[in-house]
Amino acid sequence: MATIPIKEVLESTGIYTAYFEIESEIEAPYIVWRGKGQNNFIADDTFYFKMGNTYEVDYYFLEKSEDVEDMIEQKLLDAGFLYTKGEDLRDSETKEFLIIYDVRPGSDRYDEDEEV
Description:
Layout: H1 6-11, E1 16-19, E2 30-38, E3 41-43, E4 46-49, E5 53-61, H2 66-78, E6 81-90, E7 97-105
Parallel strand pairs: 1-2
Antiparallel strand pairs: 2-5, 3-4, 5-7, 6-7
């Protein structure tokens, strides 16, 4: 299965997307993402399963829209990513809301016969 990079998946939402941080003042909504490392299954000095990169995806917004959240989540699922979704948070200074997604590749993003 050809995999779609997380950057392309997030950009396909049509929401402004940046890696690691926003470089200039931009009004919400926007998405900031960053790598969180890998969660590989290792035992007996052997990789049994290389899971791939995991990510933190932060969705900033001013008005709650479950339709937009559903769209982001469906794009992730359609591209073979799994996620957990955090609670709604609010920045007291900017008044922006934030949802944090922990995203990891699903097993269907890797060939079963692929050697590690």
